[in-house]
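Structural prep section.
Before we set up the soaks we want a predicted structure of the protein with cytidine-5'-triphosphate in place, mainly to decide which crystallisation condition to try first. Input record follows.
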Amino acid sequence: MKGKKILIAASGSIAAYKIPILARFCIKAGAEVKVVLTPSAATFVSPLVLSTLTKNEVLVEMASGNSWANHVALGRWADVMLIAPASCNTIAKMAHGLCDNLLLSVYLSSVCPVLIAPAMDEDMWHHPATQKNMKTITSFGHTIIPAEHGELASGLIGMGRMAEPESLFNHLMTFFQESQQLSGYSALVTAGPTFENLDPVRFIGNYSTGKMGIAIAEALAGKGCNVQLVLGPTHLRASHSNITTTNVVSAHQMYKICSDLFPSMNIAVMSAAIADYTPNEVSAVKIKKRENDFTISLKKTDDILKHLGSIKKNGQLLIGFALESNNEKEYALGKLKEKNADAIVLNSLNDQGAGFSHDTNKISIFEKNGKETKYELKTKNEVARDIAEKIIELLG
Ligand code: CTP
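Run finished without errors. Recording the tokens verbatim:
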């Protein structure tokens, strides 16, 4: 933990009394700690105690006197933000993007991974609104440090007690260890659709949003990998300082960039939905409406995965995707062999919640050695983490 920058953000809950102990553990382990509190948290734990322990000013208000707390700078300063305790109210506001205090504005402007330790009474924890909000914040890719069963502030015994300082500290340690797992590695990731122009206003495309590929890029980056993301046309963006994005439009542009980048990469994950065919001719002017029937002549695009498979060197790991609607396993295994990939991630259109435009996905991974791993239906961020874990396993 030496030299790591930890931002602890505490909201209003009695569990805030555990934060000075956690801050001390982190400082003793060599980390630099800054703390932000909601005004309500400041009634449970003294900013003076925390600023004395951390040797940093503890911020509570967006502005005081003539000075303004720079929430963007704080969000960018941290290697990790730990929201603990995360009260029911703060979780609800995070889920909906509300920004009515300093803690929330730091959270919304943070670019680092976020860990969340909920704390509340059992009935509030089990309320469908809280469970829905928890699902929403989990889908943002944050890590949840589970609430525990035990004595609550109400005197009742039940779920909702925030993890103890030792446990929070261990989660931070694990986070830093995992964030180094792929340090020194580089990965090429393709994501999104490609658009093949017909004329200045029309194209042939597909419904891919790039969500799965962006999540994979972020999962690898979160493990310390340097990622080159080659992204087809989409409104989505990747956010991690280890990711460099190159935006492309057509299959041919994607082919050129991937061919240039691949030789210097350790890993390539081809999750883009690349057009298999492109128009033989692109009209320089808008095509006018004429006869009843209109025929477009198409030619095959370069198969990028197959090309990378043909130039792959020993030690390089190449992962492809297969989206199938029938004979799924047979087609996936065919692609694995034909394209000389090390593994193929299969999505079946027959699985509810899998494929394009969903927030979830259900995958199976087929490896060259014949091994098949099946996964449950999960959010795309969770699926991306599974794929990153599999990559670490395949790298040995
Ligand atoms: N792929 C590629 N270049 C293409 C087409 C596909 O690199 N021109 C990659 C995809 O990114 C994916 C894998 O090949 O990793 C399989 O893509 P998919 O569309 O499922 O299969 P195709 O090989 O295109 O075959 P088909 O469409 O007939 O299933």
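Observations: The two ends are 25 Å apart (CA to CA).
Flagged for discussion at group meeting.
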